[in-house]
Amino acid sequence: LPVNRFVLDGELSIAIGGAFSGMSLMVVNYIFFVGRNELLSAVSLAVGVLNLGLSYVLVQRSGAVGAAQAYMVSQFVMFVATWILAAKCHPMPWLEVARRARPAAASVQNP
């Protein structure tokens, strides 16, 4: 059976972009908690501009698949930027677990 290119590339890009979007929603609450919504607005605006530029270039190049790829890249950038911003605004609990485990691991290696 011939498979449409959009089914393979486009839908996969949309699914991965949706996963990145969900991951950014997991950490955005730390920014809301400390009341730094203006920083989140700036990140969202910057990622929106990035998405417009990527969409313009990639749609001309690959059509609908390019739009899906632009969405995926933009959501990845949004996730990374939100993670970094949240980590600067409020300590992440999973990072604290890693910090506590590091000295314990060093004491086991150097008795």
Please render the helix and strand layout as text:
Blueprint: H1 5-34, H2 37-62, H3 64-89, H4 93-109
How would you describe what is shown here?
With 111 residues, this protein is an all-alpha fold. 89% of the residues lie in helices and 0% in strands. The chain contains four helices and no strands. It has helices spanning 5-34, 37-62, 64-89, 93-109. Helix 1 packs parallel to helix 3 and helix 2 runs antiparallel to helix 3 (64-89).
Oligomer: single chain
User: Which percent band covers the strand fraction?
Assistant: under 5%
Number of strands: 0
How does the helix and strand content classify structurally? mainly alpha
- State the shape: elongated
Helix share, percent: over 70%
- Radius of gyration from the CA trace? 19 Å
Number of helices: 4
- Unreliable residue runs: none
